[in-house]
């Protein structure tokens, strides 16, 4: 439990620093600005948002690893919850689809990110986009809040992923669904990467095996689980040399290990309707 809280605090600190940056390029310890920092560069994971409706450059900190809103089957009037909403990028894109009659809620555990997202929403004049401070493993949201949940490269940062998916199940309405982009593994990371806390905040060591990841989703009750997108991520040698010797790096390159960005879809089953007609009630 103490180790889990230490990881949460690490994430708060790293993402808090990123939120407070004023330049376009991420320059916190998680992104790398010089030899004294651990360069886990998020641009390795990020995809291009710039052509999507609702895109706002002030909200794009290039911290994602996919485009979950593109696969989330959003409809006008829906309520969408974005887990790990950062500066609001995915929220604003979702809002462009759900429209004035919809509602978008961003959840983030980092106060500077919440402040940045709220400022961005105010500048855009959105009254149906809100941001809530809280942890994904214990969301301060009522049961059955959302029609759709999205998340972008955040679940890998959560120490207790099973609880996070159980909470996602709880806040979804029966018949609702999620589309989550995340980083997963095929194979085992080298010891040097597994031990490095800085890389936890950089989406690498927090990732788990793809099959185990999908198994957790099924375990908490989700159905119709689909991998909507699967993209291999190749980490540059310049990053890996900070954690691996030349011999370890050569072995890593020759191994079967793969680091992937996946976008996963799953549904909360609709609740069975009670039958009270003459054919089913005694």
Automatic annotation (TrEMBL):
Molecular function GO terms recorded: arsenite methyltransferase activity
Keyword S-adenosyl-L-methionine: yes
Highest taxon of source: Bacteria
GO terms (BP aspect): methylation
Matching Pfam families: Methyltransf_31
Keywords in alphabetical order: Methyltransferase, S-adenosyl-L-methionine, Transferase
UniProt catalytic activity: arsenic triglutathione + 3 [thioredoxin]-dithiol + 3 S-adenosyl-L-methionine = trimethylarsine + 3 [thioredoxin]-disulfide + 3 glutathione + 3 S-adenosyl-L-homocysteine + 3 H(+); arsenic triglutathione + 2 [thioredoxin]-dithiol + 2 S-adenosyl-L-methionine + H2O = dimethylarsinous acid + 2 [thioredoxin]-disulfide + 3 glutathione + 2 S-adenosyl-L-homocysteine + 2 H(+); arsenic triglutathione + [thioredoxin]-dithiol + S-adenosyl-L-methionine + 2 H2O = methylarsonous acid + [thioredoxin]-disulfide + 3 glutathione + S-adenosyl-L-homocysteine + H(+)
UniProt EC number: 2.1.1.137
Domain Methyltransferase: 76-220
The protein's enzyme class: transferase
Family assignment from sequence similarity: Belongs to the methyltransferase superfamily. Arsenite methyltransferase family.
UniProt-recorded name of the protein: Arsenite methyltransferase
Native source organism of the sequence: Catalinimonas alkaloidigena
